[in-house]
Amino acid sequence: MREKVLDFNKKEKCTGCSACASVCPKGAISFIQIEGGFAIPDIDRDACVGCHRCEQVCPTFMRSKAKCSGFLSGFVFSSDNCETALGSASGGAFSELAYEAVDAGGCACGCVWTEKLTAEHRVARNRGDARRFESSKYVQSKIEGIYTEVKNELEFGRKVVFGGTPCQVEAIGRYCGKDRDNLLLVSLVCRGASSPSVWEYYMRGLERRVGSRLVAVNQRDKSTGYSQPACRYEFENGTVLKRSTYISDLYTNCFASGITLRESCYRCPAKGYSNADVILGDDVLHVGSPRGATLILCVTPKGENWIRGVLPGRGNLLELDQEQISLVLKRSNMLLNSSSSPGGARERLFRNIREGVSADSALMRSLPLKQQIKVCLDKVGLFSLARVLKARVHG
Question: Using an 8 Å Cβ cutoff, are 283 and 295 in contact?
Fold first, then answer.
C-alpha cells in the first residue's frame, strides 16, 4: 500500500494555498470545492509516488520551527503619490514596494479583482498592473499557477515582491526558497480568508436589488476619510452604493466578526510563524497621515533593508520606537498571533444560505446582537453621531 501524504483533516486544517498541487511532479493533486466555496486538495493515490514534496511546502503540515519573537524595527508610511495613497487601503506601502520591483525590470505578485469580481493572485510587470493590488479584497484569493511563475522570475535573477496572507507567504517561501536575495515576502496582518461563495451570494443579492450587474468594488473606499472607510459598489447602469465597511455593509461586518472565514483560520497554522520579511497592516497608532498610513513591521534584515532603501524617497516614513512597537503588538495581538472564533454563527450563516434566505437576512441573523444594533443605528445615521459624542467624552 502506497504511503499516505498530507494525511490530516483537510476540511478543518487546509489553508487553500494550493502549493501542494504546484509542487507535485506527477500532477497527482487536484482540488475539490467544499461548503463556502473553499477548495481542498484531492490526491490521486495511484499517481502519487510518495515524494513528500507536497508536505514540504504545506503551511499546515510543516509549519516553521519557531514563532516570530519580535521585530527588528517598525514604521508608519504614507505615499507621496496622491492616487496611490487614496486608492490603497492604508498608506500605499505595498504599491510602492511593487513599483520598485517592476521599475527594476522585475515583477510583483498580489491580489486583484478579476473582471468577474473574484479575487485572484496575479503577477504585475508594470505600474498599471501593479495598481490593481490597491485596496483590500475581503475574500480568499485563487493562487493556483502563481508559484511556478514567481519561481521562474527568480531563476532569471529578477526582483520579485510577493504579497499575501501569512499562509500564502509561508507557502511561497517554502516553494521558492525564502532566503533568495531578490525575493521580498510581504505578509498582511490577517483576520482570515473569507468565503468566496458568501461573497458571490452577497454580490448577486446586490445586483438583484439594483437590477444591474456589479462592475467594480472597493471594500475600503477612503473618499469619506481613512477612519471611516466604506464599501463602494458600482453597477453597469451607473448606480453607486456605499455602505460603511464593518458596519452597515453586512458582508464585511460578518467578515470582521470572524463568521465567514475558512475553517483553518480558526486554528491558523501561520499566525506568528510566517516566512515574511515584512508585515503590513493599518496604522493602529494613528500617527501617520489622516488620508491613510501603513503600519510596517520588519521581520528580517532583508525586509528592513528594503524598507529603509526604498520608501524614504517615496513618501513619509516615520520610524517607531520600541515602546510604540510594543503598543502595536498589544493592540494587534489577535490579528498577528491569535485566531478568530465564530461561535455558532458560522454554521447558522451557511444553514440560512442553504435554505435560500436572502443574503442580507442571512448575514444579519449571523451577527452578534451588538453588531446588529450598530447596523440599525448606522442605517438611520445615528452611529456616526454616537461615535463623535463618545470621542468627545473620552477626549
Answer: yes
